[in-house]
Amino acid sequence: MIALIDYGLGNLRSVQKAFEHLGTQIVLTSDPAQVARADKLILPGVGAFSAGMAGLRQRGLIEPIRQAVRAGVPFIGICLGMQLLFDESEEVGQGFQPEKGLGLLPGQVVLMQGEGLQVPHMGWNQIQPVRDSLLLREVSPGAFAYFVHSYICMPVDEEAVLATTDYGQSFASVVGKDNVWGIQFHPEKSQRTGLQVLRNFITC
User: Fold this and answer.
1) Which CATH number belongs to the domain containing residue 28 in this structure?
2) Out of 88, 91, 99, 188, which one is annotated catalytic?
3) Parent domain of 180
4) Engineering a disulfide at 26: which of 2, 14, 132, 161 sits with its beta carbon 3.0 to 4.6 angstroms away?
5) How many folded domains does the chain comprise?
6) Active site includes 186?
7) 158 annotated active-site
């Protein structure tokens, strides 16, 4: 069973339809027990980091996700879901303190910055694979994907950066370590590139 985690944020139906287009049925769930039983997990999302963590917390999903990852279950975070993989975000939460994330990958989430840079980064841009990864099989260097985000991930471990994208600065657009992956772009909006990444996740 591949579970698509519903925590109150994200364009869930479009992600689900992308998998169905590839001939794969996935289960949309906010049930911690179902998350714990899943063979693979998908964490999509759009919106604020703090709201995302609050949604996971309110539904009792944080510990089942962490336990599944520790058990080796393949896990992918999409857009906000990628950012939630990390230790914390400078997108402040309550009390103007950095918001803690899932802590599945060491690192921070920071605001995009650059003189004259228009934020959010919105639209088509290229991804450049920097190391071999099952998730990026048959994804060509310079392939285009669709982005909508204002914050970027800064992994502590450079080996966790699988692909980069340039927008005023070079940032990690695909990350991964062991059974955990994250993609900053929206695969369901990224046509051939996005479908290939999802196909790779299905077969990994």
Assistant:
1) 3.40.50.880
2) 188
3) 2-203
4) 2
5) 1
6) yes
7) no
Question: 88, 91, 149, 186: which one is catalytic?
Answer: 186
pTM of the model: 0.94
Catalytic (active site) residue 21: no
Tell which phi-psi region holds residue 27, choosing left (phi > 0), alpha (psi between -120 and 50) or beta: beta
Phi, psi torsion values for 153, nearest 5 degrees: -95, 140
Read off the tokens for 18.
């992308």
Tokens of 84: 């939630």
Q: Please pick, among 79, 88, 91, 99, the residue that the annotation labels catalytic.
A: 79
